Amino acid sequence: MAASASLATVRALTFDVQGTCTDFCQPLLRMGEAVNRAKGLSVDWGILSADWRGLYRTVLDEIIAGKRPWLRVDRIYRETLDVLLQQHGLSATFTAAERDELNKVWSRLDAWSDSVEGLARLRRRFVTSTLSNAGMRTMVAVVKHAGLPFDAVLTAELAQSYKPAPAVYQLAVDLLGFRPDEIMMVACHKYDLKAARAFGMRTAFVARPLEFGPGVQPDIAPEPWFDVFATDFVDLAEALGA
Predict the structure, then answer these.
(1) Helix H or strand E segment including 228
(2) Is there a contact between 139 and 114 (Cβ–Cβ < 8 Å)?
(3) pLDDT tens figures, 124-167
(4) What is the pLDDT of residues 170-195, one digit of tens each?
């Protein structure tokens, strides 16, 4: 989809990472398969990973609502892993050290096949930065592991809040030095883009139909309020003339 002339003022692009730049589903499933082989289990890690993400999102929303004090994402995942294993009757199966190792999967996510090429092209024309809910340590690990060519790494940890709270989008303004309307938020999650748009940023939706695996169909339908709808990062680069 070609970008409109009104986007000529865009100077920077900020990116959601988990799901948008990287595939978290396959790393989780690979980890689960390895665990099943090592421990002689037959656990459906597709179900477990979906439940884990759901528990994580619940805690995130409680923090945003002020019902819980701020906690870094890796600690949220670790806390909710304990809950997850208990819910699935697996508490006795994993030691604390093994759980810590399982939790590291969130630092070892795979880049989508188009991510590196698309980001490299976009970086030549725009300032590019992560704007993720993950913690700084985790995000640096993800960017290095996946080989993602960003100019800057920004995460919600710097604001002690989480998207879709406005304070996270304000980070991009304060630390990249551009007005909200000069920054485009790129994500495959509509809630993220809705919040960015309400904050005054431009929006680019990148469809990731396999975000949750081949058996799940996320909402990737175009919306009239998107500034750009792209099928992947290469398509986004084409749309933005990069």
Answers:
(1) strand 228-230
(2) no
(3) 999 999 999 999 999 999 999 999 999 999 999 999 999 999 99
(4) 999 999 999 999 999 999 999 999 99
Beta carbons of 138 and 109 less than 8 angstroms apart:
no
Instruction: Please list the alpha-helical segments (H only) found in the chain.
Output: 25-39, 45-64, 73-87, 96-103, 115-125, 136-146, 166-176, 190-199, 233-239
Tens digits of residue pLDDT in 28-77: 999 999 999 999 999 999 999 989 999 999 999 999 889 999 999 999 99
Which residue from 141, 230, 159, 231 is spatially nearest to 195, judged by alpha carbons? Answer: 159
> Residues in the chain, how many?
242
CA distance 191 to 203: 11
* Lookup: tokens for 152: 């800057």
Helices (H), 160-202: 166-176, 190-199
* Secondary structure (H, E, C), 32-69: HHHHHHHHCCCCCHHHHHHHHHHHHHHHHHHHHCCCCC
pTM > 0.90: yes
Rounded to the nearest 10 degrees, how much is the dihedral formed by the CA atoms of 206, 210, 215, 216? -30
Position 230 pLDDT exceeds 50: yes
Buried b (16+ CB within 10 A) or exposed e, 13-39: bbbbbbbbbbbbbebbbebbeebeeee
